[in-house]
Amino acid sequence: MKKIFPINDPKNTPARVIEAIKSELRKYVKRERKKKLPEGVDFWDFDCKVGETADKALPLHVAEINQALDHALTDDWQAVYFEIIAKPGIRTHKAKESTSEL
């Protein structure tokens, strides 16, 4: 999903628009996570970018989407660009530390 969301809407306040954007993005992520996983894949991971425009977009983690939208509201952006692309993810397990008792 690559989309530009306008924040200034004559019918709604910017706070309401931000909440609607958050809702739409949550629904998109939830819908993508429900898709069937390919063989050998543990979960769906996401490459996310957000910015005022596509050129200014910076990468972020999917869990930081709400914070990025709150930042856009406080900085009074006219629009916010989101790029969320699903990719297969494989879990990596942390190595256990060996403890030897003497």
Secondary structure layout:
Layout: E1 2-6, H1 14-33, E2 43-51, E3 58-60, H2 65-74, E4 79-89
Antiparallel strand pairs: 1-4, 2-3, 2-4
Short overview:
The protein has one domain. The protein is α+β, with helices and mostly antiparallel strands and 102 residues long. The protein is 29% helix and 27% strand.
**Overall domain count:** 1
Shape: elongated
Helical content stands at 25-40%
Content-based structural category: alpha+beta
Structure overview:
The protein has a 4-stranded antiparallel beta sheet, covered by helices on one side. A hairpin with a 6-residue loop joins strand 2 and strand 3. Helix 1 runs antiparallel to helix 2. The model has no long low-confidence stretch (mean pLDDT 91). 29% of the residues lie in helices and 27% in strands. 12% of the residues are buried. The chain has one domain. With 102 residues, it is of the alpha+beta class.
Notable traits:
102 residues, alpha+beta, four-stranded antiparallel sheet, 2 helices, 4 strands, 27% strand, elongated
